[in-house]
Amino acid sequence: MRYRPFGNVGQAVSAVTLSLGAHDIANGPEAGRELIYSALEAGINSYRLTTADPVLAEVLGEALRHVDRKLVQVSLMLGAGDGRRGSDRDFSAEGMTSAIDRALHASGLGWFDLAVLDQPEDHELPQSSLNALKALRATQRIRLLGISGDGEVMDTYVSTGAFDVLFTPYHVNSPWQIRSRLRDARERDMAIFVYGYFPESLDTMKKTVTVQEEKKGFFGFGKSAGKTKAEPSAAPGAFAFLHQTNAWTAEAICLAYSLTDPAVASILIDAPDVERLNTLAQVPDRDLPPGLAAQIEMARVAGANAA
């Protein structure tokens, strides 16, 4: 695992961050803890709770109990509910404060390194909520504030200077709006966490399955029934080469490409099992094949011109 600087206090964060949600404890708390133990063994020291679900927070806290708290980085998503039935979006000062306190109590972590607002619209975040978060930071229950999303309102949030970290989608074919936002965040000394590094539009296998299903008739009979090989015509245009690179999967290339930007602190990954976790955790230790980054840039420009 490789590590990158995070924040202005000299903390280092692993190049990949394990994102944890309800699906990771669907088979019980023990399954969730085993996944986190495997992540620790792989060198991952950064974890994101997708909700303030107390059960999820407790699982993470128990798994990290014997690790020096200062050596791990834990972020908590706020505003999208806590995962419980009837839990609604809530960016109110009271709602976010309660969510943080519940998660801290359940986890026993002492503090969250990062509290991240989950895609708030411009009308959802009153000044009182920001004041409450700043008060929580002053009492060291949270250390830094982040903002996550991909809408145009994100430009406004970045420009306020109220946030320390930007969570943003970013991949080989990201539009200029996203790239411009990344530049603005860098100029404001914001740390950057990336998600959505491998969108479905670049996944040939998913596109192939869709094409084959459309060709089948009733009961699965049709011209392509029983066909299992990928069809070249299903390749995603200029980026077809992503699926034709020896010893690399398209997802691994996309993950490694996102890490070529030195401003990116860490990439968010989802890992439903230990095998996938270990596969993705090995990518930061690999360098892209010579010339592949340039090929990606040419394909991106060609796609933009064609559009």
In terms of topology, how is this protein built?
Layout: E1 3-6, E2 11-14, E3 16-20, H1 29-41, E4 46-49, H2 54-63, E5 73-78, H3 93-107, E6 112-118, H4 127-138, E7 142-148, H5 153-160, E8 165-169, H6 176-187, E9 191-195, H7 204-215, H8 250-258, E10 264-269, H9 274-281, H10 292-306
Parallel strand pairs: 3-4, 3-10, 4-5, 5-6, 6-7, 7-8, 8-9, 9-10
Antiparallel strand pairs: 1-2
Could you write a compact summary of the structure shown?
The protein is of the alpha/beta class and 307 residues long. Helices cover 37% and strands 17% of the residues.
Descriptive notes:
There is one protein chain. The chain is built from ten helices and ten strands. The protein has helices at residues 29-41, 54-63, 93-107, 127-138, 153-160, 176-187, 204-215, 250-258, 274-281, 292-306, and strands at 3-6, 11-14, 16-20, 46-49, 73-78, 112-118, 142-148, 165-169, 191-195, 264-269. The protein has a single domain (3-196, 248-289), classed as NADP-dependent oxidoreductase domain (TIM Barrel, Alpha-Beta Barrel), CATH 3.20.20.100. It is an alpha/beta fold. Helix 1 packs across helix 2, helix 1 packs parallel to helix 9 (274-281) and helix 2 (54-63) runs parallel beside helix 3. The chain is 37% helix and 17% strand. Residues 207-236 have low confidence and may be disordered. The longest helix is centred in the N-terminal third of the chain and has 15 residues, at 93-107. The strands form two sheets. It has an eight-stranded parallel β-barrel, surrounded by five helices.
